[in-house]
From TrEMBL:
<dbReference type="Pfam" id="PF05272">
    <property type="entry name" value="VapE-like_dom"/>
</dbReference>
<dbReference type="InterPro" id="IPR007936">
    <property type="entry name" value="VapE-like_dom"/>
</dbReference>
<feature type="domain" description="DUF3874">
    <location>
        <begin position="84"/>
        <end position="153"/>
    </location>
</feature>
<dbReference type="Pfam" id="PF12990">
    <property type="entry name" value="DUF3874"/>
</dbReference>
<feature type="domain" description="Virulence-associated protein E-like">
    <location>
        <begin position="3"/>
        <end position="81"/>
    </location>
</feature>
<protein>
    <submittedName>
        <fullName>Putative P-loop ATPase</fullName>
    </submittedName>
</protein>
<dbReference type="InterPro" id="IPR024450">
    <property type="entry name" value="DUF3874"/>
</dbReference>
């Protein structure tokens, strides 16, 4: 067994726009929509680029994203986010309740149960686990209780 420092760098291209599948948000990705051809005519001096990056890090420059920047990335990346069927169905049949509305306070499993009653899909443990993340991503008002997290929603 060998202990190594963690390094990560990844660049990818796709001909599709629905590439992000993380239901909790995509703050670790910077997605860019290209509108033209990529020019390969300029050579990149990778050694100099690395040296500049290391110089900045050694000077104490921040190299991570913080809350406001993560929010901007998540917002920008929305067009690249895959919308799973449970998410699409929730948005079709429910919405977040306004703070002044009575609405209903339901557990994620209760919301999924109502969607299942419409015979739209089969309920599974995996869907239940991920569904709470989907509700959080859409900023559905929630509150932790002894029975679990309840979400303040209105059925359309």
């Amino acid at each position: 067994m060998e202990s190594l420092r963690r390094y990560a760098s990844f660049i990818a291209t796709s001909n599709h726009y629905d590439v992000l599948t993380d239901t909790s948000g995509s703050r670790r990705f910077i997605c860019v929509r290209l509108t033209g051809s990529i020019s390969y005519s300029d050579k990149i001096n990778h050694d100099q680029l690395y040296a500049q990056a290391m110089h900045e890090i050694k000077r104490g420059e921040r190299y991570w994203f913080e809350g406001p920047e993560e929010a901007i990335l998540s917002e920008t990346n929305k067009e690249f986010q895959v919308q799973v069927p449970a998410e699409q169905l929730f948005l079709q049949f429910f919405r977040a309740a306004e703070s002044t509305e009575k609405g209903e306070k339901l557990l994620a499993v209760e919301i999924l149960g109502r969607l299942q009653e419409k015979k739209l899909f089969n309920l599974s443990a995996t869907k239940i686990i991920h569904f709470g993340r989907i509700l959080h991503k859409h900023q559905i008002p929630s509150k932790r209780t002894q029975t679990g997290t309840i979400y303040h929603v209105v059925e359309k």
